[in-house]
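Quick illustration, no need to memorize.
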Amino acid sequence: MTLSNLSELLEHGHCNYCCFDLGRRVQALTAAEFAAIAAQQTPYPYPHQHQAQFAVVFWPQLQQQPEPFIWLLKLPLDERGLLDHQAQQNFISQVVALLGQQITATLSEQQQQQLQQSPYLFSPSTVQQAALHAQLRQYFKQPPSLHFEAVASYLHQPQQQPWQQLGVQGIHDVAVRLEQLERLQHQLLNHLDSFPVPFLQALAQALEHPQLPLTMVEPLLTMLPQLPAERQLLVWRILASRAEHPAVQQALTQLVQQPLEPTHASDLLVLVAMRLWPALLPSSSNNGSLLASYIEQLAAHHHAELRLALLNELVRLPAIRPHLLALLRRNDNATPLRQLWQQLSGATPCN
């Protein structure tokens, strides 16, 4: 039997499975979303550096207490943003050559080494691994790691223990459970302006992956103007999972319509393109003015390589692409935008 894509491989292997995107955020993909991506019926929605990155977690259908297998996959995308068919075929061939279609069979040490040599498997960053493990524990209704209690205790009373002793995994375990931990939400907000910056950075890296509790959005936006610029950037990162929230879009629009502080302009432009990009999508509360203002700021930025790199990242996002191209192709654009369009069209196909 010929298997045309990864979804078919999992189905014919008699597996239950779940998938997590590891591109821009660590977030779950539904089985239907993954099947459509694998079958090239829809573009991969979160490309990063022209690649798709995801975790495929699978286990035998009849297993009562799942002990899952995990493939951490990095696959190239074609010029249409679709998962490269040949790359999928190559990986499927490697798996079938080792295991046949019994993909949950136990691998020998030699087989494990052979599979690990596949160019389509990769090692995520420490942050990605912690975010994935936290979400998997929650998905399988398992308790958090042993580091959870120490982080929860620190959030309640930061002055009682040194933050350097906290485990990264514990921070991510708190992040994925924050929706159910109302007291911790309040404590986090109360201490946000006094947490050591390195701890706040680790917290922001964890909170950008799961959905931030909606009750925290307005308080965070209210606090923003009172914080130093470095902390403001970290709060924006915390808000990344709620980038499409009307209040977030409005606040971000006000920010990018003003001259950006030179020392943090690059950081903000990168943060919007890589984490807050859903805010750029036109909506009932945002008629496209945010995208236009952001692109104007990008066009005015002094660093040509950064301009082109961020523009290339945005234009490859399927949801953003048509709006961005329509904006850049307007005949009445000012000179900086026309130059930006010339840069982009000279560097990448834009049909």
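The chain has a mean pLDDT of 91.
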